[in-house]
Amino acid sequence: MRYRILGPVRVWRGDAELTLGPPKQQALLALLLARAGELLTAQEVIDALWEEPPGSAVNVVHRHVGSLRRLLEPELPSRAAARRLLRGAGGYRLRVEPGELDLLRFRSLRAQAGRATAGDRAKGVSLLVDALGMWSGPAGTGLAPTVAAHPLFTALNHEYLATVKEAADAALATEPEHAPAPEHAHGERVLTLLEQATHHHPFDEALHARLITALAALGRQAEALAVHDSVRSRLVGELGVDPGPELRTAHERVLRQTVPVVVRAADPRGDAAEPETRPPAPSLLPAQLPSDIATFAGRRTELALSRELLEASEGPEGAQGTPAAGGAATIAAISGMAGVGKTTLAVHWAHRVAHLFPDGRLYVNLRGFHPTMAPLGAPDVMREVLSALGVPPQRVPEDPQALPAFYRSILAPRRLLILLDNARDSEQVRPLLPGTPGCLTLVTSRHRLDGLVITHAVRFLGLDVLSRAEGIEFLTRRLGLDRVAAEPEAAGDIVELCGHLPLALAIVCARALINPRFALDAIVTELRATRGSLDSFASSDASADARSVFSWSYRALSPAAARLFRLLGGAHEGPELSVPAAASLVGVPVREARRQIGELLESQLLLEEAPGRFSCHELLRAYAKELSEERDDEAERAAARRRLVEHHLHSAWAADALLAPYRDRVPLPPLGDGVVPEELTGETQAAQWLHRQRQVLLAAVERAAVDGDDGEGLCWRLAATLELFLDRAGRWEEQRVIQERALRAARRAGDTTGEAYILRALGFAYCRLGLYEESHETLSRALDRFTAAGAPDGQATAHRNLAFLSNARGQHAQALEHYALASALYELSGHRTGAAAVLNEIGWTHILTGAYEQALDDCGRAVLLHRRNGNRNGEAAAWDSVGYARHHRGEHSEALDAYAQAIALYRDIGDLSLQADTLVHLGDSHAAAGDTAAAAVAWREALELFEHLGHPDAQQVRERLAGPEMFTPLEPR
Question: Which of 312, 385, 322, 389 is nearest to 8 (CA)?
Fold first, then answer.
């Protein structure tokens, strides 16, 4: 039997390692091994295993003892006396032979070293180094924290520290001129042990004093002074104390050069000495992880997923959170855009779980996206890993075909944590993955590594930017609570202006730390002044400069994908785009655009927010814009913008035609070369597209106006096409802004047809905003333009808008006159759907005058006409009017039935705005009938829709819900 307690608890029978069972059983075995053959009382076991022991604790301990006996002596007959795990007076004792337990061998070597040092100091150092080489981590590594903190294990760890100090003292006490060559190697190994020990005990001044002296003895005085400065800063900054006498003495000896030098850095004659390499000693466990960031912030969701990954990989008998001895290897890939914090998260996670991997922690920068160096090849990485594991170079196969199998064989029996950082693609990573379970492999990359997800079922973690709360936490951890708390609004603005990107936040924090007198509000002002560029995120350090970091991804693109990326910044305005929009932007077929988008997605230069919808982070967009201005001429950018505006116009026109197929709409110009409109297949999809693309469409109107003569016809046509959508969505101020912009564009172009359409839309927007005088003047001018053009449908719609304005001003007789003129014009042009709509609006005017019987007659006939014409939206509007008339006659049941008809139609065609409007009416009728519960249900549904749309009528619904008895009826739209 062989037992290990100096590190993780492990047991072998011959060459076979045993599975030690559940965590508490492992902890019991560890306690017995720590006692090294001496008695361990039952009460000590219970106190160590439970903070609050259950009533069954004694029985649980008995069961674990029985299981350990069967594990250690499987051949033992039932009820026979055990020979290894023995019961004593009130406790248990594990009988181990001196050669079976690493702790006993360690103590034996330490005792031999103590005896040898008096006569043969070199032999003593050698024995101490061998003794320390038996440790592979803190005693009981991997046990539950409460168990690992038990005094038994604490005492063992103190023995380790004491032995490190003894070894250092013995090695440093040898006079250099009498030091034999082998002792130089021991000095290097002692130095390694000191470095490891000081890493885990950063405030132990005695250890650091010996490390400083050892470095100086090996001719590395500069490093010795750097260690002193580092520990001094730590003591002063974190503990508020100055170095003690031992540390000060070591520092002074280095300064005065009184430390005997065993190995000099240079030949006494001044020639460069042969470079020294420290060969990895078999006892040296690789601990290559980069240092964790003390100011790490956020990412709790991602860290929770990492815990789930480890828990999912543990076997039924494995230690909690430890990769199972059976099953597949545990592999996780963290992917995200440049600067999002992939490596920071991976390193932080790795440090949190490092204790679960007793055979070492390996780190390799694969250089997949490096500014000057080529990506590392798999053979180079394999040799680097094998060297770190202490495999002599002569054992490593030269044949590249044999190397992967040898590499996997070396990894197979080990429990390692391997962090492969900055991978280029799946092909670079795939040969480096362990072939057997027991290891955790973390991979970071700007690419999505789809191939690994497919072939190795890798757990994929797509890393997004920080949330607002995480961004505030990021600033607080770096700048201090007082500074952030003093300017909370400015702190939030900084997060927003940095696009929530960790790299950008880190650059801004560095500036704030270097200039502690700068107010955060002043930094906000600076960021706002440079918004749309990367000037505020520049650094002389390429790894911390936003442009440089982004460029490493850009340079990996094909020329076609690089052009699409540039034009996303140089010609596209809006938060997202689709495949047809991208195809129009670059003037290529949809299939080619999809390929280019896939490449940008793979490189994390685009994100897929939802199926078929892609977005670009605002700082990446700023970088793309800079690139486009440098590399694409203005003619190319202007052509791309025009194609994109045409795409938006034809797509919006198609959406409007689906939602309101019978209304008067603007004529379209022919489709330009390379323009690909959206393929919209129904009312619901059309409505969703318009709502989702609203900001993009508004920006397209502005861009078409700015681009001059070639774009002006597109500008007013797109603005007029958006009129009904913006009106229904309650976006009346946005309507005013873009229609005024389009009017100026149409007038510059001398386009009287465009001017007529825009005046009509603008006049109605003024009415919605309560600007009645401006509305009447503008609508009258629109009517004049349509009359002059001989356009009866345009005239009819202008009369309807003037009638709506008259009703809003309480001038109902005048409204009926306008409706009569509109009806006659529709009869003249044969526009049956328009005539049905006017009939409903006449009925609505009668409701406003209290003529409910006449209203029911008009609106009822409108229902039948719309149904005959197949206009479901018009039919729904007429049903809503019928319900409103019934409501005012006190016929609440009939009103509810009419509203139900309208709501069903609106839901079917996806008209959220008018659906919400009718739901409000439905709630009003429920409330009038005394059913306040049903009223509240309808109003809440209406409020949810209005809030989703950002509609101003949401406030009136909130007032209803706050006090149903206080509400005033919502006027229909």
Answer: 322
